[in-house]
Amino acid sequence: MRVLMFGWEFPPHITGGLGTACYGLTRGLSHVEDLDVLFVVPKAYGDEDQSSIKLMGANNVSIRQRKVDINKFKKEMEYIEVDTHIIPYVDPEEYWKLTKVKVEGEKKIVQTNEEGKIDFSGKYGADLLHEISNYALVSNVIAQDNEFDVIHAHDWLAYPAGIAAKEASGKPLVVHVHATDFDRSGGSVNPTVFEIEKRGLDAADKVITVSNLTRNIIIEKYGIHPDKVVTVYNAVEPKEMEALPFKKNKGEKIVTFLGRITMQKGPEYFIEAAYRVLQKMENVRFVMAGSGDMMEKMIRRAAELQITDKFHFTGFLKGEEVFNMLRMSDLYVMPSVSEPFGISPLEAMQSNVPVLISYQSGVAEILNHAIKTNFWDIDAMADAMYGVLKYPSLSKMFIKHGKSEVESLKWEDSALRVKEVYDSVANLKVN
């Protein structure tokens, strides 16, 4: 079986969990017999790991003198202009300005370079939806030029590409939901993004969600029939833990929040719980590692609570910086308001760190050896933090059983579930 897969990013050029999940899944699929994946991104850099898949950049495909079916692009479209670099999980309302462009008749004017190719930034910056539209246009050409059995599109950025490939080939489409705009915006959805998500979900022959939490949103908020939606949980890449290149202060505890500092991730609840813990303990420091639109507000709140001497903002961490931070930590906290899955707690457990997560996260559905509270229950969160930091035997228990549990979550198992989804649609006749 051949799979034509579309995603917006692929390691090492990633800004969040989406690229990590795509990488893990393709690695898992490489272990499935008689299955090959062609993974298409808007921009290929040339240094991506292609040991498990063949990777193609839409920026390397010439569309000169090619017939492109653009039925889906003939209507009036909205595209997004952004004044700052964003990532697809950040609440767009503060940044995005909606503008309209009219596409007339059977022809679409597209700017190409001397080789007849479209230049893509590969980022989440200016003219984001304009790039999504061009990505879909090139995907139509890619679908004409390649043999495959199933199309697989990851998240809303790639749904138009998946639809375009389906139109060109008549092959079945599977869309993979890693997050919805209800998660990113807290319910105040961007109508343009919602329309793209809805169109992709309607066009799909099957929908994969990363948790039952997300599955319920797809069914209830987007009106998709339950029989069409399947949950396949994420996993984590095996990693050998190296010794820290430095030592912590003796007797000092570190509690870490690691993620985007946005409303979705619940950073304000972390700070309020930290304040309560510091009323009882002095030998503890709190770290908020990441960046986002709420960062300045969180710094101000820490100052108001007069805990800045015990609170540290590191900015965005990547690669080994993430694992160094985790290995320093005595507790990892993810108080997300709405988290479709959440791979970072698995990485923390890999690093021998106890984890505290919200019930409002998809990963809470599969973890037995994680402490769970509601994101809004600051007192319960503070009590849990205090317990793990105060009583070494409790911490050791979560470390031991958590490590064993996370090692059982393999991408190969997730890949087999995805292969079952492929098999269920492979012989469908697509209109």
Overview of the structural elements:
The chain is α/β, with parallel strands linked by helices. The protein is built from 13 helices and 15 strands. A 7-stranded parallel beta sheet has the order 3-2-1-6-7-8-9, sandwiched between helices. The protein has a 6-stranded parallel beta sheet with strand order 12-11-10-13-14-15, sandwiched between helices. A two-stranded antiparallel sheet has the order 4-5. Helix 7 links the parallel strand 10 and strand 11. The two termini are 21 Å apart. About 8% of the residues have low confidence.
- Give the CATH level 1 class of the largest domain: Alpha Beta
State the separation between the terminal residues, measured CA to CA. 21 Å
- Stretches where pLDDT is under 50 for at least 5 consecutive residues are 73-108
What structural category do the secondary elements indicate?
alpha/beta
Strand content: 15-25%
CATH architecture of the largest domain: 3-Layer(aba) Sandwich
Number of helices: 13
Using DSSP, what is the number of strands? 15
Shape: elongated
Strand order of the largest sheet: 3-2-1-6-7-8-9
CATH topology term of the largest domain: Rossmann fold
Fourth CATH level, the homologous superfamily of the largest domain: Glycogen Phosphorylase B
Which series of helices and strands comes N to C? EHEEEEHEHEHHEHEEHEHEHEHEEHHH
Average pLDDT number? 86
Estimated radius of gyration: 22 Å
Largest sheet: 7 strands, parallel
Q: Helical content, roughly?
A: 25-40%
Number of domains: 2
